[in-house]
Amino acid sequence: MIIIKGIGASPGISIGKAYVLEDEEIVVTRTEIPRDRLRAEVARFKAAQKATHRDLDAAEAKVLKLLGKNHAKLIDAHRLILRDTLITQDVPKRILSEGVNAEFALSEALEAVNQQFEKLEDEFFRERRHDLFDVGKRLLAHLLKHARRSLADIDHSCILISRNLLPSDTINLQESRILGFATDLGGKTSHTAILAQSLEIPAVVGLSDVSRRVKTGDTVILDGEQGLVIISPTPEAVAKYEKAQAAEHEAERALEALKGLPAVTQDEKRFQLQVNLDTPEELKAVLALQADGIGLFRTEYLFMNRPTSPTEEEQAKAYSSVAKAMAPRPVVIRTADIGGDRLTQMGIEGPKNETNPFMGLRGVRLFLRHLDLFKTQLRAILRATAKGDVKIMIPMVSAVAEVQAVRRLLNQAIAELQAEGVALPKMVELGIMVEIPSAAVLLDAFLPHCDFVSIGTNDLIQYTLAVDRVNEHVSHLYDPFHPAVLRLIHNVVTVAHRGGKWVSVCGEMTSDPHAVPLLVGLGCDCLSISPRMFLRVKETVRGLRHAAMARLVAKAVTCSDSEEIRRLMREQGL
């Protein structure tokens, strides 16, 4: 038995036969290109760039479907690389000045940058090298007409062993029969590790030479919690880990018994527990959870990877199918939280070269610049009210004038549909997402213009703390337990309830069993949770006493740092 210690990148235990993935070597040779063919060679390279952009669109759609929009931002890192002058300018210059083929010019440019990465000591920047290689491999594959491997093609259960896995490989893991993976390279801050955690696939990275020490067919135990890979384990080791696996599975089965039970605390405080929905394809799994409704139906998928904007009919059909399936339980449909780059893809002129698109023209800001797109979506949502209890929610709200403008447009859409003979309910609730601090601070001014409030914790935390949580260089500063965050949420709930409005919360904070006690104590009326964490959160809520959590929150909002809050929670056994 051989035990190798690495970095636990994603928790969980896997036991199975190893499948060693050989390095995918792409051989590039230097070819002299005649002077009269150099422009054509540059054009061939630009065609490969366009094809790679299409690859990234498809990858983004897959990540969005599997993991939601925040993880889809990882693909933006690859888009930035593809637009970098290294790719857009240096490679064509090499082709023209050196008279070489595009593949060779690209490989030389990538190698030059790799030499710079090798000199860096900072793990964060070293890990970005893998994103560069991922984009480079995509480009080379198109130039060489080389079909890239897909891990989805592995047709048997196994533990994947590899020198390295690129983020584009990891995206395909959920569609494969891979039980877990171990790699020579990589760190906990890599995009590959982040994706593995979100897909709940056990992973150990940074093992140095595991791909040389393991052979395909070897029995392997992978412990993603401890960061261990055990090769050719003894029967005693297998028995120990099988027992640990069985305990994990038993805990999962116990959660199944919670389906259909109310989310009520030990002292009889009832909460609404709803789920997030990224696409209608997930509806079957969501229905099986027997949730109280859909608290966040993201509609971005309808606007992705297409040359034109979605029609009213197409949207109405999608929204109606979800409303009908969930009836009589409510469905909160969020208008598309897209940025200007989506407009360009759909043939609509949008902003060019936004240096910080996540604080740019997106969400309600973008739609209020393109009222035809906005009214089309509002009309489609209104038409879906015939099939169930549908509510509308607006993202990226920062000013009262924005909500007033949305209300006017909504009233116009209602009047138009009624004039066309479409039956509508007496009232369709309009809510706002509180994810920008200005909306949280000024909430009392917003309340006369909306019917409910939904706190988007991911962006609220990012904007409050000025931290991009997907940027591993500062991700340790992203802290849901920061007192400033809790005070803002406390203020939102207090002001909304005083104004007679109900409060929902969505974002990863609702899917974190450690943070849920605080949300219960804050008095949030509804939690909208990722489907995979729904039953665990229900178990947490049913095990709490609301009065005790309210007392905990009263102390937490007076704390000066997050460690004080965590200490208070530890004292409560949380």
Molecular structure report:
The chain is an alpha/beta fold and 574 residues long. It contains 23 helices and 16 strands. Among the domains are: 2-20 and 154-233, Phosphohistidine domain (Glucose Oxidase, domain 1, 3-Layer(bba) Sandwich), CATH 3.50.30; 35-143, Enzyme I, Chain A, domain 2 (Orthogonal Bundle), CATH 1.10.274; 299-428, TIM Barrel. The chain is 47% helix and 14% strand. The strands form 2 sheets. Strands 1-8-7-3-4-5-6-2 form an 8-stranded mixed β-sheet. It has an 8-stranded parallel barrel with strand order 9-10-11-12-13-14-15-16, surrounded by 6 helices. Helix 6 links the parallel strand 4 and strand 5 (178-183). Helix 20 crosses helix 22 (546-556). The radius of gyration is 26 Å and the shape is globular. It starts with a strand and ends with a helix. The model has no long low-confidence stretch (mean pLDDT 88).
